[in-house]
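DNA-deoxyinosine glycosylase
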Amino acid sequence: MESRELQHVEHGFGPVWDADSRMLVLGSMPSPKSREAAFYYMHPQNRFWPVMAALFDEPVPEPTAEARRDFALRHRFALWDVIASCDIAGASDSSIRNAVPNDLAPIIRASRITHVFTTGGKAAQLYRRLCAPQLAAAGIDIPMTPLPSTSPANARMRLPQLVEAYRRILA
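Predicted structure tokens:
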């Protein structure tokens, strides 16, 4: 059972990207399972990797950081999160308080990233409030498209609906 008590959480691991990355996919804050594995979307019921595999017409990468890092870089998408640290209860985005944003400018400047996508409503909200002003102050004007959460908490969206919503990243 997940704790409902707020805990101060540090992100704990860095972004996945390289100079050829073309898009940046941002979540809010890694879940406890992802923090434990030190990689993105590692909860076994999170549908992020099945969605991305369907988009790129490939098998779902093995549930290892190495396999998933290779998949992301091969398909030229970077992964990170909006938040560097916050107070949060378990994996509950709605509980997030005292969010401190990651500085996205260095990886955007050092890559070919031309678009940001956020996964879930809270990531989009926090990006608009915390990251967009920082990027604007750094002279970076980059479009952001919000996408639905792939979390098991977003049970109303089935895998085919998520795949269809995520097709925007291929444009």
